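Q: My collaborator sent me two sequences in one message, no labels, and asked for predicted structures for both. Can we handle them in order? The first one she listed is below.
A: Yes, handling them in the order given. First sequence, followed by its structure tokens:
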Amino acid sequence: MIRLLDLAAEYHELKTEIDAAVARVLDSGQYVGGPEIAALEEEFAGYCGVPYGVAVNSGTSALHLALLAAGVQPGDEVITVPFTFYATVATIGYVGATPVYVDIDPATFNIDATKIEAAITERTRAILLVHLYGQCADMDPILEIARRHKLIVIEDAAQAHGAEYRGRRAGSMGDIGCFSFYPTKNLGAAGEGGMLTTNNPEYARTAALLRSWGEEQRYRPRLKGFNYRLPSIQAAILRVKLRRLEHWIEARRDRAAEYDRGLEGSAVTRPESLPGVRHVYCLYTIRAEDRDALQKGLAAAGIQSAVHYPLPIHLMPAYADSRYKAGDFPVAEACAKTVLSLPLYSRLSAKQVEEVAARVCELAPQAIPSASASYSSR
């Protein structure tokens, strides 16, 4: 079996350090808050190139608090994409705002910046973009649009730890960045976790209050908040892993390059990167015309794969919206039918990549139009 991801191998690589970090927290008796949380916030914010980090218990909580800290309210509209994990959209609903969808770029799977302005109305308050699969969205035109229309920009960087756009790290370019430390991410906890990053001290202060019942002093809340605290043990584990993150990212990039070579000339479309972007390959996601048959064939050969994501959000029954119907976002809908994520993690061997690529080349029934052709034609 070639696994999609091997979390146990990652733990065993760092077992001595992780076990010592966990024991340090247990010995301290400081299981909520305290020095481990403060140190992780400082270290991860520094890694992202911002002065403030606010640790929380999940990436979903980070998105929720980001919207609240930015002042998004009921009646506001937030521009986002229909092709993402649905937490992105769910949190817009949590604050009583309305998601307004913009289709994605076929080459990068990220928001199509050329379509954003047409979606802006007098009620638009923010752009909540997603750096999907480990690649930053095309930030310069997005930030320029936001500046002209006085909009907040929130980066959903749940899959983009360490990704860069023209020398700037994910989570440092918009008003607030939101990260997930779910175990499958490039930087994953031994459970749930998340982080907000920002250059704005007021956003950081508000988010920090909201994550712990809004308390400025114990039992004296200043705001109506939530129990969104990150456990100290998870912070200690993440601090150990953060020191290895760059090494793991480079290993992922090397394996992605090997996949690119192995799939060259095949009947699948390989992932692409924007010029000047550092793709960190949280996922290596191809497109195949008969994706389901390819996935079944890989499974029969003992190769795990996954679909991220099989339905765009506007077509999910739980998120049905009378404003939208099938066909409204053709790129997102086409990608949902054709994307497939192949095994990728830092300890995946070159031989395993070669085996997966060879089997994909054997099984893929026919090519689909090149994403780069679509991108360059605009």
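Q: And the one she listed second?
A: Here it is, processed independently of the first:
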Amino acid sequence: MTRGWGATFRPPSEFYTPDVPELPEVETIARGLHRAISGKTFGGAEVRLARVVVAKDPRPLGEALAGDRVTQVGRRGKFVVMSLASGRSLVVHLRMTGRLIVQGRPQTGSACPEPVEGLLPYANVVLAFTDGSRLTFADARTFGRMRLVEPEEAWAADFGLEPLSHDFSFERFSELLAGRTTPIKVFLLDQRRIAGIGNIYACEALWEARIRPTRPAGKLSKQARQRLHQSITDVLRRAIEMRGTSVDDYVDADGLRGGYQNKLSVYGRDGEDCARCGRKIVRTVVAQRGTWSCTGCQR
């Protein structure tokens, strides 16, 4: 297995690939995986594309995981985090086209995993459990990465605040914005400040808060900051309730598409009428990212 971070598992500030699954999609996947695989014990693994896996442990992934048990599955930023009984974590970043799909039914009394058959297309890593089921990491573009993290590794040290946590208060949000000259859209995408927001939900939150994406972050009035703080949490929660947004390849752990794409107000809707003021929604580019907004009511 590849050692070190290198170019395969970069710090969060460099995750700017377009249309990666964002917080609601990763949260949906993590919740589904928690229900499906928590308590299961690894029987082995088949790594079909070596560069996908990053680990300090020099052993093959299947050998390193065998006998370890999944205690819970959660999320940090845009990462799926599988906590293991050994104190280690198996961390996955899906990037643009990655999928984590649970396959197979548990087999009562099975002492070892059945042979891997019926793999998903582009299956790069197959994690087998001792009950006969498996978790497949499939990725057509092969940008996604899986890292086996040792207990002492501070792999998420550079991550920003979780926007749905108690730490994401209005006061803390205002502190983060203070003195920042960068456009507010760019600020929201910086994973070192706030973890998990990407292009879709930055555009949606700014529309809901009536804020122009290019406004300097540090110049927002108190009222604008309050609106944006509220809209960030509201948009993310609504998207989670609808199991995320499927505009490209995203599906959850059961292979199902999300539903929030049917509720988007501006993202991907250039040329359509704004639902709030009737002006046309436009697409511009902010810091090399496609950005959708309404020139009528976002100021």
